Amino acid sequence: MQQVQKPEVQIGKAVPTILFLMVFSLVIDNSFKIISPKLVEYFHVSASTVSWQVTLAGLVIGMGAVVYASLSDSISIKKLLVIGISLISVGSLFGFIFHNNLQLVVLARIIQAAGLGATETLYLIFVSRYVPAEKQKKYYGFSTASFQLATVIGTLTAGFITTYLAWETLFLVPLLSLILIPFLIKFLPKETGESKFVDVIGIILVAAVAVTAMVYLTNFSWLVLGLFIVAVILFLTYISKRKKAFITIDFFKNKLFVFTLLAALLIYSVQASFVLNTFSFLMTEVYKLGLDKVSLMFIPACLAAAAVGSLSGAIAKKLNSVKAVSLSMGVIIASALVASLFMGAPLFLFVGLLILASCAYAMMYAPLMYAGLEKTPEEKRGTAIGFYNLTINIAMSIGFTYSSKFIDSLHLGIFGKTLANHYSEVLFVIAIIAALALLVFLFLVRPNMAKNGRV
């Protein structure tokens, strides 16, 4: 096969441009994640109903990452990023115009998310394609730090806009991404490539599995459970027969990879349910804080998590994957339990718990991912990483879904009948789910790692 010569690239100008767009995209997504309490008040609907603007957008971002990665072999990264910005802007303008209709707001978020899915994936592909191998780790590190920075900016933006301006003004912020188009055109190279098959059917089937799972967690319908089982069977049958499927059945014959995906699904659903969703409702309803003050509480947590993420290499020298994940999950379980048992305690306790949980997730991301990739062939690791990140996006959506359902209708009567007691119950159940995630890791993932000397 004739090797295609790579065009010369101004790394010092191209990478910051794409990185800035990635940060901006993450800011947009994170902004809409914490405004659910405001939307519940505005539309006079349940938290479960409002959660769809987050869960479906998250699902589309995950699917979009797979699609854009596939298209990048035949369409230039420059064109794909311009398409992404166009979708972000169209969805945002649509959402601003029709902000009085919740169904149209959800549709606007889906269109917006179809563009947001381009940025992080294409940044990683650009780095792997054009940055020298010895410098790639540094640029990948920028991605992790950018996520934490974007979380800070996103929560602050959402908090202050929804408090001091109309919440729908948040839809106008993404239009600023249009300013970056001339810079992308100028600094990114022209690329040519061979056309590559995009597995649309496979991606649709994964979406069907994820959506039916989320709907079932919302209303526990036997009909929806049946549809979920059918979707899973169709997906597994399809990837067994289709050689060009975006992920083949061989991946699911790798027990370590499958069990890691299951652990990740539970672990990151807890992050969405505890840190991103329940925490905001808890602060606004029990502590009567405005979203501007809630957003300020995320600053120390995100900065601390960014520091932990930047030290992940040094941490890895002291802790192997099993110890890092086990310690992180122990901290997350303890944080949720303490929050549950000390409801009504001074705010600084909850700021501290938010810091601990955020740092735990920052420390765990790489060890958990690399644990799952241990038995994956080198040439298939790109696909495996893509599916792993897709699983995380699905997990976050599912976490928002079940935690919103808990907030709406969980009544166990364990702690009492006040509003504070209700949130204690919600956090207690989330802690149980986190404990289940740890058990999956210890009893399913760790033994398969031990077979290869990785304990």
Instruction: Indicate the CATH topology of the largest domain.
Output: Growth Hormone, Chain: A
Overall body shape: globular
Q: Structural class from helices and strands?
A: mainly alpha
Q: So what's the CATH class of the largest domain?
A: Mainly Alpha
Q: Cα-atom Rg, whole angstroms?
A: 21 Å
Query: What share of residues is helical?
Result: over 70%
Describe the structure.
- This protein has helices spanning 11-33, 36-43, 47-50, 52-71, 77-97, 102-130, 133-164, 181-187, 200-219, 222-241, 249-253, 255-285, 291-310, 312-318, 321-341, 347-373, 381-409, 419-450.
- With 455 residues, the chain is mainly alpha-helical.
- It folds into 3 domains: 9-197, Growth Hormone, Chain: A; 199-245; 250-455, MFS general substrate transporter like domains (Growth Hormone, Chain: A, Up-down Bundle).
- The protein is globular and about 65 Å long.
- The mean pLDDT is 83.
SSE diagram, text form:
Elements: H1 11-33, H2 36-43, H3 47-50, H4 52-71, H5 77-97, H6 102-130, H7 133-164, H8 181-187, H9 200-219, H10 222-241, H11 249-253, H12 255-285, H13 291-310, H14 312-318, H15 321-341, H16 347-373, H17 381-409, H18 419-450
Helix pairs in contact: 1-6, 1-7, 4-6, 4-9, 4-17, 5-6, 6-7, 7-13, 9-10, 9-17, 12-16, 12-17, 12-18, 13-16, 15-16, 15-18
Brief synopsis:
This protein is mostly helical. It contains 18 helices and no strands. It is globular, with a radius of gyration of 21 Å.
Keywords:
455 residues, mainly alpha, Growth Hormone, Chain: A, 3 domains, globular
